[in-house]
Design brief:
25% of the residues are buried. The chain has helices spanning 6-20, 43-48, 52-72, 112-123, 129-132, 141-160, 171-181, 189-203, and strands spanning 2-4, 24-28, 33-37, 76-79, 85-93, 96-106, 164-166. The model is unreliable at 199-204 (pLDDT under 50). It starts with a strand and ends with a helix. Helix 1 packs antiparallel against helix 6. The chain is globular. By secondary structure, it is an alpha+beta fold.
Length: 204
């Protein structure tokens, strides 16, 4: 669990946005957004997610990304099901993932027309979301990589500066959370024992 200096965190997120013009959010280990700048997602995504089918696919896409980052413990940049780019990076305290930083959404300018056609084909352009796609920032691949790299530095700084730190919880709660976050895998008693024996060794 995270302990957060909210005032300091909000200023860092705002500074990141002012430099990159990319929305950045902090999420906990249950994938719940707990801080962001700007506070609202882009209008395109907001309108698109009013559709229950798109909302379900968006959640599934995001959760897949968070699970990947939990397993690999590294930066992950990917395209969502609508074709927009997002990046996720783990927030790690003493080798334990306590949350995530997430940036997006953005597109490559050359993809804009293709995304519009795909939306119209699959969803009939509900809520006129193709129009709002014009508001989504566009970057080239190098720019996207640089922004994601800056995000990873921010994640390290958040912990180094103790803007985010770890709240100690009992071993039972930690095991329960580990199981909940890994239900998609074939967990065994041996896997769980190994995971928490390694954590206890690192805590010594």
């Amino acid at each position: 669990m995270m302990l957060i200096n909210r005032e300091k965190l909000q200023q860092i997120l705002k500074d990141f946005y002012n430099i990159t013009k990319t929305r950045i959010a902090v999420l906990d280990c249950d994938y719940r957004e707990i801080a962001a700048y700007p506070s609202e997602i882009c209008t395109f995504c907001k309108k698109a997610r009013e559709n229950p089918i798109i909302e379900s696919k968006c959640q599934a896409c995001d959760h897949q990304a968070f699970r990947y980052v939990q397993q690999e413990k590294k930066l992950y940049t990917y395209r969502c099901h609508l074709g927009l780019f997002e990046s996720v990076y783990p927030i790690t305290v003493e080798k334990n993932i306590v949350g995530f930083l997430m940036i997006g959404q953005f597109i490559e300018e050359s993809d804009r027309e293709k995304i519009q056609i795909n939306i119209q084909k699959n969803y009939g352009d509900i809520n006129n979301i193709s129009y709002y796609l014009t508001e989504v920032p566009s970057f080239n691949e190098t720019h996207v990589s640089s922004i994601a790299s800056i995000m990873s530095v921010c994640a390290e700084f958040l912990c180094f500066s103790k803007t985010i730190s770890q709240k100690q919880v009992g071993i039972c709660a930690r095991i329960e959370r580990y199981i909940e976050n890994n239900l998609h895998t074939c967990l065994s008693v041996e896997d769980i024992a190994k995971q928490f024996s390694e954590i206890e060794e690192n805590d010594i």
